[in-house]
């Protein structure tokens, strides 16, 4: 018998992957959590029926959340990740020696627990001494911390279920207040093929809060359409003014010094969404 | 009853799209041809079980085959398209007023016939007076024409079935000979996630024939992984030395003057494939 996982990424389109084994299929306090072993992508974490990460292509998303902001900020010492319980963004943050402390706040402790068990290559950094892991609502954490972080990264699920508050103007204002005077914020903001209105509305909201707003993108095969966008809000530092020759070659597979600015050049129909 | 078209893009991974209607499902002299109406992507042309083009995302591929080469060559008057019977690349070529003649050579007349009927927005340019449509083997056409074209574009299926000869060093040498002294060649060269060896081997072969070889990419949601590569071989003109400010704003949805060079900045794991 062949088992296939099929994710409807829209009402009438989806991806399908042959699976070898189901490790976890559980309703947590916050969401449906599935951890499955696929033939093509290795271990795959699925939340509320949406692929979050896989062994094969996780490096793209995690590198592209972490490095553009960290190489835009001149001295990122104190970094916050909201969501991201699989630990992939933390792993990338730890590649930066300037980072003294990285705080991860995920609302769902089960994501952290199962990622450590089934995705050790992704979650390994969560036990690093520079990392503090907090199981809490990111919205509340942001509210309780002012003028504290150099960089805040939002590695959330889509704006349904537990992440719905993370796509509001109020949340972006909270992040602004949680950042130091030259802080930078970055969030994943879905894809322009099936969810273009979200990109446009987030862009409008972030522009009301941050003086510098930039959108960049990367190819993640297991995310809808394969084109994923990220929105950056910055108080002072502009990612497009970074001297790429000052960026060191890092142990990465997607991001590179050469890609730093190119990732901000959007396909024209995406550019038009955020004008 | 719901009908879904599922394409296995690898042995263990695929995409699936809900369909409203099947217009054509026919074995031509050369390949299996399906023309279906999908909910998400509109009309979809499928050859030998692989999506070739859809109403919704066709602009990406067709623009990105045509414009980078045409804006690298200073005066592209005589252009050849090998394959591309749907007419999408021809439509983009016709946006360039310098082009005096565009020749399309597709081995399968049925692709042309059904594209005109079911994909009129894509195939419309095939009846333009500047266009000559030839139903023939592109390999033979190339062999019979020397020193004739400014730009040759290979818009082929994958290297199985009728297109297998179009991925050989001998074919690239034939194209070199069919090009004038400052001619440019471009071909679609699949994706690096599931078919990385092809990109590497084409790159080695093209480098043996052309002095300037560059690889660029674009996001095409209905192609495997969403990351599609194109390989350009050039006798004289380097796409990376083009003055982007000299490129006019065109009626495009993906390509732009700003994207011209950025498209050549590859994700690091792709860069490593073609070093």
UniProtKB/TrEMBL annotation, chains A, B:
EC number: 2.5.1.16
GO CC entries: cytosol
Pfam families in the cross-refs: Spermine_synt_N (PF17284), Spermine_synth (PF01564)
Residues bound to S-methyl-5'-thioadenosine: 31, 106, 137-138, 162
Name of the molecule in the record: Polyamine aminopropyltransferase
Transcription keyword on record: no
CDD domains for this protein: AdoMet_MTases (cd02440)
Entry keyword annotation includes rRNA-binding: no
Function: Catalyzes the irreversible transfer of a propylamine group from the amino donor S-adenosylmethioninamine (decarboxy-AdoMet) to putrescine (1,4-diaminobutane) to yield spermidine.
Keywords from the UniProt entry: Cytoplasm, Polyamine biosynthesis, Spermidine biosynthesis, Transferase
Catalyses which reaction(s): S-adenosyl 3-(methylsulfanyl)propylamine + putrescine = S-methyl-5'-thioadenosine + spermidine + H(+)
